[in-house]
Amino acid sequence: MILKIVIICLVVIFAASVLFYTEHLYLNIFKTHDFTDENYDVNSFLERLVYLERQEHTAQMCHLFKSPSKADENYQQAINDSVLMEHILVDNHHKLLYCYVPKVACTNWKRVFMVLSGGETASADLSQIPADVVHKPGTLDRLSDYPAARAAEMLSTYTKFLFVRHPFERLLSAYRNKLEQRHDSSRYFQSRFGRRIVKRYRANATERALRDGDDVTFAEFAGFVADTRDTVFNEHWASIDRLCRPCAVNYDFIGKHESLFQDSDFLLKHVAGVSDVRFPKGPDTNTSTQLVKYFTQLDHNTILRLYSIFEWDFKLFNYNLQNILGYEVG
């Protein structure tokens, strides 16, 4: 009996905290929860506190490290950012805005959005929707498709979310998928970027390497990304801060690649209110287990330069370098 009273008291305290943050941070994540329901799911409630903590951390980092400015209530800063507007996908039926980040399960989330927006039936095997279809321009609505006033209204009223990943794991995933492996989809990157990288960063490169660009080493790729002289933008290794501007857009939900399926199912069920769509489970990757193997190929200075490029992603989403270097930087 005493234990039950203690649990009830803790839940009441949590509920009061949640209501405070809902009012002050405008968090849609708790709007579907009925705190007066005696049969509510305590585990689900505690899960929401994890997501609340992520939002609170990002908000704190924005306040501490980004230049303080007057609240942009009309989202003028956001709607004037063409990269951001291009990366926010729209589901009008469920009033969802998703800022997609390459190498953070964006292909599967685009498949989900095709179903949510009516492009595919909910009973379809989402994993069977071809990747080239979901990435094809025009398949999904983007915020950039709308007039500025309407886009600002949607940013103010729709539920906004994104998924993030350890910056160096995401960078390694981009290298392995676009330059190291011999997929048909890799040929574009090997031709456009691989040849450029070989020419600039490899002494005594062979004619074949200069022609094909399909044998770029991770050290060469890291040097290319870390080299601020090269300003060629590519979304696959641009920072999440650059793509989604989390200090300009108050995201209602921040999912993580490390808990991808749990976070995705929670978002669909408890935030979007969708019960007949499940996030597709793709093949497991071993990128996270390969971090040390690849990054120990780099000198310390290159790692520090890479960290400086992705510094905001580390800070905003609470990542560190302990598992790679054994100590923190920055």
From TrEMBL:
Principal location listed in the UniProt entry: Golgi
What Pfam families does the record point to?
A: Sulfotransfer_2
Q: EC number(s) for this protein? A: 2.8.2.-
Q: Is the Cell wall biogenesis/degradation keyword given for this protein?
A: no
Q: Does the keyword Membrane apply?
A: yes
Topology versus the membrane = Single-pass type II membrane protein
Annotated GO MF terms? sulfotransferase activity
Q: What Gene Ontology cellular-component terms does the record carry?
A: Golgi membrane
Q: Enumerate the UniProt keywords alphabetically.
A: Carbohydrate metabolism, Glycoprotein, Golgi apparatus, Membrane, Signal-anchor, Transferase, Transmembrane, Transmembrane helix
Q: Which GO terms describe its biological process?
A: carbohydrate biosynthetic process
Give the UniProt subcellular location, in the record's own words.
Answer: Golgi apparatus membrane
Instruction: Give the InterPro entries listed for this entry.
Output: Carb_sulfotrans_8-10, Sulfotransferase
In terms of PANTHER family, this protein maps to: CARBOHYDRATE SULFOTRANSFERASE
Q: Which family does it belong to?
A: Belongs to the sulfotransferase 2 family.
Name recorded for this polypeptide: Carbohydrate sulfotransferase
Organism of this sequence: Cinara cedri
